[in-house]
Amino acid sequence: MMVMAGKLTWDAELYEARHGFVWELGAGLVDLLDPKPGERILDLGCGPGQLTNTIAGRGAAVMGLDSSPAMIGQARQNFPELSFILEDAAAMEFDEPFDAVFSNAALHWMLDAEGVARAITRVLRRGGRFVAELGGKRNIRTIVTAIEDTVARYAAGAIPLARTYFPALGEYSALLEGCGLEVRTAQLFDRPTALEGTDGMANWIRQFKWYYFEGLPAQQRKQALEETVDELRPALYRDGQWIADYRRLRVMAVKE
Ligand code: BEZ
User: Fold this and answer.
1) Does the pLDDT of residue 6 top 70, yes or no?
2) pLDDT value for 18
3) Which atom of ligand 1 approaches the CA of 139 most closely?
4) Tell me, what's the pLDDT at 3?
5) Which residues are CB-contacts of 171 (< 8 A; sequence separation ≥ 6)?
6) 9 C-alpha to center of ligand 1: Å?
7) Average pLDDT, stretch 186-203?
8) 140, 250 in Cβ contact below 8 A?
9) What pTM, to 2 d.p., does this model score?
10) Which of 28, 74, 75, 240 could form a disulfide with 12 if both were Cys (CB 3.0 to 4.6 A apart)?
11) Which residue has the least CA distance to atom 2 on ligand 1?
12) What is the reported pLDDT for 8?
């Protein structure tokens, strides 16, 4: 992941090759969504489209939306028969309302959480549901702390502004309620997440947190990454397996 003109850009190939757990672990969220044949469903932050395709497989008329050109390009290549649109969530407008808005592991990248919640309400029909999972409060705290420690050692002041939003349960529920969504269930839980291979943590950081290292001179980045991985090993590497300290916030809400 890189930052260009203040916007995160995604490496869709690394994402598909090494981080398939994102949609594999999202399958349970599709069960909570419980898509019905013929329902009109929006997959918000669809990435390369695997869960959009799972929802389509249940017979729903689904559309995937993402603000990353790389992800939308990959989704169209993966599933040419499905509809994908490149758009910022907060700006989305549709002629026809949706029966449900679904989102897995995407909302924490959308910093205008209120604008996005308003947009979700806008595009749902009355009685339509919002089913989502995102990083919750203290998500990946061990990893972020190690990255910030390392980056600060190299260049105090190079820590970038937060680029993720991990709300507490009450905070996010109140935000949704303030935007016209009635929260029916909300759950915050630890979900330790296995990463693939002995280089799993380095790959994860390259994919999701590389923007921290972009503030350092190019010749220091590899060394800084290695030091971060070494710092994390005692806490997050067990029996040959990297485990990321994910915490999820899962919500189901209905448009009033
Ligand atoms: C996640 O919780 O899915 C996540 C958050 C930040 C970076 C990568 C993944």
Assistant:
1) no
2) 81
3) 2
4) 58
5) 137
6) 15
7) 96
8) no
9) 0.94
10) 74
11) 135
12) 74
Reported as a single tens digit per residue, the pLDDT across 21-68 is: 888 888 999 999 999 999 999 999 999 999 999 999 999 999 999 999
Do 85 and 65 touch, CB atoms closer than 8 A?
Answer: yes
Identify the residue whose C-alpha is closest to ligand 1 atom 9.
Answer: 208
Least confident of 46-55, 92-101, 158-167, 171-180: 158-167
Residue type, 196: E
Report how far residue 45's alpha carbon sits from residue 110's, in angstroms, rounded to the nearest whole number. Answer: 9
Task: Identify the pLDDT of residue 49.
Answer: 97
CA angle 240, 224, 238 (to 5 degrees): 15
Going from the Cα of 166 to the center of ligand 1, the distance in angstroms, rounded, reads 9
Parallel/antiparallel/unpaired status of strands 181-190 and 2-4: unpaired
Mean pLDDT of all residues belonging to the chain: 94
d(CA 238, CA 256): 46
* Displacement of CA 180 from its chain's centroid (Å): 23
SS3 78: helix
- Give the number of residues written for the chain: 256
Q: Give the model's confidence band at 1: pLDDT under 50 very low, under 70 low, under 90 confident, else very high.
A: low
> Which residue's CA is the closest to the ligand 1 atom numbered 5?
135
Instruction: Give me the amino acid identity at 125.
Output: R
Which residues approach ligand 1 with their CB closer than 6 A? 105, 108, 135, 139-140, 164, 208, 246
What number does the ligand 1 atom closest to the CA of 246 have?
2
